[in-house]
Amino acid sequence: MSIDDRITLDRKAFKALSSDRRVAILKSLGRRRKMLAELSSELGMSPSTMKEHMDSLVGSGLVAKIDDGHKWKYYELTRAGRNVVSPGETRIWVIIGISAFALLLSGYGYLGGFESRMMLGAAGVMNEVSKAAPEAAGA
Question: Which DSSP state fits 4?
């Protein structure tokens, strides 16, 4: 998954996802692209109601209407829609990102501790040198 696969849900997408019927439509389209009549029949909605839901999903960027020059128009999930329906990949990348961040923090903590030990060691050496300097001057 590249950076382009990451999605940001805006207000329209959240509004589209607030309906159980639209979520059911997304799940159905997650299996394959379909025509409006197929979706309407499968989910038991009138074609006009289905059209309203599809307009909302297309407007939110979760679904694309495919017009390939034929009589029938198909609807399919966009990349954002696929990530909403199948968030497993997205979750994996979030977990990897969090793990990498934690590793960075622990490495920084280790190096920070190393730096502190080095500073304390240097202070100890300086302390020994300052003690030895008067003895060397007196001899």
Answer: G
Structural domains in the chain (count)? 2
pTM over 0.70: no
Residues 107 and 137 occupy one common structural domain: yes
Q: 24-48: b or e for each residue (b if 16 or more CB lie within 10 Å)?
A: bbbebbeeeebebebbbeeeebeee
What range does the domain containing 56 cover?
8-86
Q: Is 53 helix (H, G, I), strand (E, B) or coil?
A: helix
Residue 3 lies in a domain: no
Selection from 82-91, 113-122, 124-133 with the highest mean pLDDT: 82-91
